[in-house]
Design brief:
Layout: H1 3-9, H2 15-27, H3 37-49, E1 59-66, H4 81-92, H5 96-104, E2 107-114, E3 125-126, H6 144-163, E4 168-174, H7 178-189, H8 194-197, H9 206-223, H10 230-237, H11 240-255, E5 259-261, H12 264-276, E6 284-286, H13 294-302, H14 318-336
Parallel strand pairs: 1-2, 1-4, 2-3, 4-5, 5-6
Helix pairs in contact: 2-3, 3-14, 5-14, 6-10, 6-11, 7-9, 7-10, 7-12, 11-12, 12-13
Length: 352
């Protein structure tokens, strides 16, 4: 399937299911809208899935792993080899997100979409497009063809998971240097100066932060990405992990599966997906606000509010996975709580 064909097939969420879910919440014996964003999340999930009978029993986090050539500019505290180490830990079930996912009863699906060195692991999906991107500060990170191929990898993985019965997905990633690529993409799409959207990532010094900003500036000057063309932006100054996650969001919309946005990197991918297909927004939920400078800015651009505000910036999909137990608790009320009628109570009314 071509990317253009995917975009043509995506439709908005089911508004009848949304209306039915809202109506059901009004029958649940609790003050109206008292679960706030959690009620809204369950309602959005109903619209995404096309049914007010919400089922979140089978869920997974898809973690796109890739390396970024821009690390040659001294924009990270750790070396590129860390990408492979963490990806292998994911594949063996020992990384941060794996530990949290066990509590959340979610499967972890690590994907080698562009790691610089071959990695191994029992649960790793091998979808490597190229062994790391080129250095964006001296030329395009990848070709447009490679970028579109990476997006389609994300779509195809969601299609496979849909066939396996998954009904909720979270987005995760691993890639040394990907806060640099994310800041570069965010700078273009948000039309903001790189200094305003670039953070310290995994603990950069002030001098390192300045190198990071300057590397992005050079990349934007040399590559001249088109802010009206998300694929052009991704291919020139983005990363394979971001492109793959863009595909996960598009795949979720295509397959009617809600997808949880994690932090900075997946927020950038979410915005790319929406720029490619506005209807894809109906299938996204914001789990938390990244502590990186562009975190809130990206969610504001999407018009989404984060449910968790905990200054998290661990990545791997940990923030999105942290939301899953909260959704379970909200769903328990939605499905199992008695109604006003069953309690012989007068129902609350929406007052103006």
């Amino acid at each position: 399937m071509k990317l253009s064909e995917v975009l043509e097939q995506i439709r908005p969420a089911d508004h009848r299911a949304i209306a039915a879910a809202r109506a059901h919440w009004d029958t649940v014996a609790h003050p109206l809208n008292s679960l706030g964003l959690l009620e809204e999340a369950i309602t959005r999930i109903a619209g995404a899935s096309g049914s007010a009978q919400v089922d979140l029993s089978k869920r997974a986090v898809v973690a796109m792993c890739a390396d970024n050539g821009v690390v040659a500019e001294g924009v990270t505290q750790s070396g590129q080899e860390v990408t492979a180490i963490v990806a292998e830990n994911m594949a063996r079930g020992t990384s941060s997100v794996c530990c949290m996912a066990r509590v959340a009863k979610a499967d972890v699906v690590p994907v080698d979409i562009g790691i610089a060195t071959p990695v191994d692991g029992p649960r790793l999906l091998r979808r490597n497009i190229r062994r790391g991107t080129a250095n964006l500060s001296v030329g395009p990170a990848m070709t447009r063809e490679e970028c579109e191929k990476a997006i389609l990898v994300g779509v195809e993985i969601v299609q496979d998971l849909s066939k396996q019965g998954y009904r909720l997905l979270a987005t995760g990633e691993m890639g040394i240097g990907n806060t640099t690529t994310s800041a570069a993409v965010a700078s273009v799409l948000l039309r903001q100066d790189p200094a305003l959207v670039t953070g310290r990532g995994a603990g950069l010094s002030t001098a390192g932060l300045q190198r990071k900003v300057e590397a992005i500036r050079r990349g934007l000057d040399i590559n001249r990405p088109d802010p009206e063309d998300a694929v052009d932006v991704l291919s020139k100054v983005g990363g394979l992990d971001i492109a793959g996650l863009t595909g996960v969001f598009l795949g979720g919309a295509l397959c009617h599966i809600p997808v949880l946005i994690d932090g900075l990197i997946s927020s950038v991918a979410a915005l790319c997906a929406v720029r490619l297909c506005p209807a894809a927004l109906d299938y996204m939920l914001a789990s938390h606000a990244s502590n990186e400078p562009a975190g809130r800015m990206l969610l504001d651009a999407l018009g989404l509010r984060p449910i968790i505000c905990a200054d998290m910036c661990l990545g791997e999909g940990t923030g999105a996975v942290a939301l899953m137990p909260l959704l379970d608790m909200a769903l328990t009320l939605y499905r199992d709580m008695s109604s006003f009628t069953e309690y012989n109570m007068e129902a609350y009314e929406h007052l103006t």
